[in-house]
Write a structure and sequence with these properties.
single chain, mainly alpha, 8 helices, globular
Length: 240
């Protein structure tokens, strides 16, 4: 069997790449940008609600989940403050804003993939290991969509996007390798790291992706599309 760090790395690259291909196809129709962002909001919220959060709570408890979630929120806010310092968004062009948003997403997704890799490694001998790997692949598809979309709008070339997918996936391998190296197995640590991931991705979804969807469409349209995407993926995760 392949080492867990390699499985996590390849799964992340695969998920991000599939999402990127979808974004490339949809990007040909610029009127669909608001739609794809809204779909990503629904997909990510569904994965957080149905897959990752329940796993974190079952491994630990509500207190650990709350602490990890708060840590993820603060992690996002710290990066957000540093990244957008001294920037006036209202004067930015769409292309410049899309590039900044894409780079910001690269940083956030890379940072949250480190604990995901660590959780994946600690879960290798736990019953939920395959479920977590399934969630890892699935949630990287919408992440690839939301990452590639602003980069495509900013005019970034495809080969650079492929390199970005490798960059984002690398922390998964690093986190898994570190845990395997020190032979660490802790349900509470897994629960906390999963909760940090939930908090950071939730903030990215609500403060970066949803506003981008509303900007290119409307709040009502974005909420409706996000709700449809949320319901569709939730049905798939629960009953398929």
């Amino acid at each position: 069997m392949a080492p867990v760090w390699l499985i996590g790395f390849l799964s992340t690259v695969a998920g991000v790449s599939v999402g990127g291909v979808i974004a490339v196809l949809i990007n040909q129709f610029r009127k669909s940008i608001g739609t794809i962002y809204a779909v990503c909001v629904g997909l990510l919220l569904s994965l957080l609600s149905v897959e990752i959060s329940p796993e974190a709570i079952s491994l630990g408890n509500w207190i650990i989940f709350a602490l990890g979630f708060i840590a993820g929120v603060f992690l996002f806010e710290a990066i957000h403050i540093v990244f957008y310092r001294n920037m006036v968004r209202s004067t930015e062009s769409d292309r410049s804003h899309s590039l900044r948003m894409g780079i910001f997403l690269v940083l956030i997704l890379s940072m949250h993939n480190l604990p995901m890799g660590m959780v994946l490694a600690t879960s290798e001998n736990f019953p939920f290991g395959s479920a977590l790997l399934h969630a890892l692949i699935l949630h990287n598809i919408p992440e690839g969509m939301i990452l590639f979309t602003p980069m495509l709008i900013a005019g970034v070339r495809l080969y650079k996007l492929f390199l970005l997918s490798l960059f984002i996936a690398a922390p998964v391998a690093i986190g898994a390798f570190i845990v395997a190296w020190i032979e660490l197995e802790s349900n509470w640590l897994s629960a906390f790291l999963l909760s940090v991931t939930v908090g950071s991705i939730y903030m990215v979804t609500m403060k970066e992706i949803l506003p981008a969807s509303i900007k290119h469409s409307s709040s009502t349209y974005s909420v409706i599309i996000a709700a449809l995407a949320f319901g569709s993926l939730t049905m798939y995760l629960l009953f398929l």
